[in-house]
Amino acid sequence: MSIDHSPAGGRPVRLKCDFGITETIGQVIIWFLLTIVTLGIALIVFPYYFNRVVLNRTEVLDDRGVAIGRLNCRFDLGSSLGHVIIWILLIIVTLGIAAFFYAYRVIRVLLNDTRIEYYR
């Protein structure tokens, strides 16, 4: 027997992201400026925060297509600073090869820090 935790009885079956092109352009401009100001260091945390913004703009839909909740990614750099530092060192030591693996690890870390917040 399964337990349904959604408030309306509809099961979450789909995700819908409303992260638009305007927001994308705004994020790219902000991160471009941060990259210049920090001489490229901002690019190390860019994948975390850019993907976090997209996750936080995603709604959970039930089987009828009605929004029943949203994703809430609680990632913050302070709690994962050790993770970032280890990957920086790995990228340097492997002359960039670890960066391919880093991209996938970023998604894993973010998904593990994401919860569904149901609408009431």
From TrEMBL:
**InterPro entries per the UniProt record, alphabetical:** DUF6693
Taxonomy, superkingdom: Bacteria
Give me the segments passing through the membrane.
28-50, 84-104
Pfam families listed in its UniProt record: DUF6693 (PF20403)
Keyword list, A-Z: Membrane, Transmembrane, Transmembrane helix
Q: What is this protein called?
A: DUF898 domain-containing protein
